[in-house]
Design a protein that fits this description.
Elements: E1 6-7, E2 27-31, H1 36-44, E3 48-49, E4 58-60, E5 65-68, H2 77-85, E6 89-92, H3 96-105, H4 115-126, E7 130-136, E8 142-151, E9 154-162, H5 167-181, E10 186-190, H6 194-198, E11 202-204, H7 206-216
Parallel strand pairs: 1-2, 9-10
Antiparallel strand pairs: 2-4, 3-4, 5-10, 5-11, 6-7, 7-8, 8-9
């Protein structure tokens, strides 16, 4: 770790993502800050922060990279039945501060979402870069949620939580289809999990991921706001 570059908060740059370590997989640099400009530069280049309160800021770009291409979302038969019930309502950008705090506070294994990160991503939300997706139950209570960044035609998922069975799966279906309708090319999931793989995510080489970013981060999507309009078509599908 001592051979990794330390980033100066006064200098806005990152080493190329290809220079990340193999062990631990993807660790690229330390230090710097969590300014909104640095965060946007990081994501545009396939890099994200992930660290604990007792660590310096750690910057990562793992290989392979877990991604979901919106058109490849997988809907199982049991999930199809859940969607047909229409139990959950999905919105976007209605409760960003609550979503990011619930992402931090509902993880049994602890969280990397420090107060500084909450503050910085909150600023990105005010800039229209970070977004929340909310899952509501029929009582109007939050049943699940997610936040991430939208840059060009790429969506970078950061964290997700679920308080009710299937809430996160329903969220993923709505988000993938809405992103597809808006012309997004890719959703970054960062690292594999069984849940993501069952939803249709897969791992690709970092070189392929970076190539997609270079093509898409400067391309405008086909929407002007984050009002979710996609709806599950119903039992006939």
């Amino acid at each position: 770790m001592t051979s990794l570059p330390w980033l100066d908060p006064d200098q806005l740059w990152f080493p190329p993502a290809e220079q990340a370590l193999d062990d631990p997989d993807g660790l690229l640099a330390l230090g710097g800050d969590l300014s909104t400009e640095r965060l946007k530069l990081a994501y545009r280049n396939g890099i994200f922060p992930w660290f604990s309160d007792d660590q310096p800021i750690l910057w990562w770009s793992p290989s392979p990279r877990c991604v979901l291409f919106p058109e490849e979302i997988h809907i199982s038969r049991s999930l199809r039945r859940t969607l047909n019930r229409g139990y959950f309502t999905i919105t976007a950008d209605q409760a960003f501060p609550r979503i990011i705090r619930l992402c931090a506070n509902t993880r049994a294994e602890g969280t990397w979402i420090t107060q500084d990160m909450i503050d910085s991503y909150g600023q990105l939300h005010k800039q229209g870069v970070a977004h929340s997706i909310e899952v509501w139950n029929p009582k109007g209570e939050l049943a699940g949620g997610m936040y991430g960044l939208a840059i060009g035609r790429c969506f970078f998922g950061e964290s997700m939580f679920s308080l009710e069975t299937n809430a996160s799966k329903v969220l993923m279906v709505h988000l993938a289809n809405q992103l597809r309708d808006w012309g997004y090319r890719i959703m970054d999931c960062q690292v594999e999990s069984g849940h993501l793989l069952r939803m249709g995510a897969r791992s690709i080489p970092r070189s392929e991921f970076l190539s997609i970013l270079r093509t898409c981060v400067d391309s405008s999507p086909d929407h002007s706001d984050w009002g979710f309009r996609w709806q599950w078509p119903g039992p006939e599908v």
